[in-house]
Amino acid sequence: MPEVTLPPPPATSEPSLPEVPLPPPPATPEPSLPEVTLPPPPAIPEPSLPEVPLPPPPVTPPSNSGQKNQLSWLIPAAVAILAAGGGLSYYLHTEKKAFAEQTVQLEKDAEALSETITLLRQKQEEARKGNQTKLLKEKENSRLLETLQKKEKAVEQIRQKHNSVLAEQSNATKRIEALEKELGAITRNNIGIPGNSVERVNSSTVKPPIINPPCPETDKSLLQTSLAYLRARKQGTATALADHFAPYCNYQYANNREVSKEIVINDVRKFWNKWPQRNYRLLEVAYKNNHVEIIYIYKYAGQRGRSLQGYAKEIWETNSIGQIIHWREELNSKTPPAASEGYRIISKNN
């Protein structure tokens, strides 16, 4: 504390100090200090305030009673001021430390909040891209659905046309069957048509001529016909093969009914497509009147390496000009079929 110069002692007793009037209170209330959240009390008791050493009393010469009165109230006031200053300093230090800790915590919270915002923005961007992809897929699905509907309409039109063609084909087949029945009836009854009159031949009184009389000339003719027939089947010549059939033929693979030779040739074409490589070797020919049997070895090869071989016997019934009007076949994979009993046999080696 600064040294206070005391006044010289008065000659007479010193009068008492005058009363100092206090300043008037302010017209408006002073704003209250903001509430500061104090930190929680520490687990250990707070240290007591440090003892502030008091300055030694000044060495002054002995004075009178007035000087003693002045020192009596100055010293306690100084001590109170120093104590208040130390307490305020400690309080301010504690508050500063609490503010610093709150600032660090707020910075951490702000950093965590920033990371959360960044993560939310990333998710929002991913969701936006996902929505765009979904919209594109919906557009593509809509386009595909529209294309599918157009295809379904086109297929329905084709189906209607196909049903119409099938109906026409069915009607045509019925007309052909009716004509085939009429032709078969004419053929079986041997109806002759001289001019405009119709005369029925009585089969009980008139014998039909022998179509293939047993003789060397017939043997040679039927042998050449059989070789030409197998050559047409091997080479896939539909025109040459069709010449061996009558306009209508009772065909085994048409449910044993009479069909046009075009249907027969179409069925043979399907067989050629299945077995593009074919080979035949004629063994013998047998005949009796207009019934002919040809016996041969066959070997077939398909497109996928499949193969098939064996023996076959074709059974023909021919008309008066040698065309086939009735066709059947027998297959045997191990031994050649035998000719029918009573038939004249022509060996190829003869």
Would you identify the CATH architecture of the largest domain? Roll
Stretches where pLDDT is under 50 for at least 5 consecutive residues are 190-206
CATH topology of the largest domain, by name, is: Nuclear Transport Factor 2, Chain: A
Number of E-type strands: 9
Order of helices and strands: HEEHHEEHEEEEE
Structure class: alpha+beta
Instruction: Give the termini separation.
Output: 162 Å
Q: How many separate domains make up the residues?
A: 2
Can you walk me through this structure?
The protein is of the alpha+beta class. The chain folds into two domains: 63-182; 216-347, Nuclear Transport Factor 2, Chain: A (Roll). Helix content is 47%, strand content 18%. The protein has helices at residues 65-189, 216-235, 238-242, 261-274, and strands at 191-192, 199-200, 245-251, 257-260, 277-288, 291-301, 307-318, 324-332, 344-347. Strands 4-3-8-7-6-5-9 form a seven-stranded mixed sheet, sandwiched between helices. It has a two-stranded antiparallel sheet with strand order 1-2. The longest helix has 125 residues, at 65-189. Mean pLDDT is 80; it is low at 190-206.
Give a brief outline of the structure:
It contains 4 helices and 9 strands, in the order αββααββαβββββ. The protein is α+β, with helices and mostly antiparallel strands and 350 residues long.
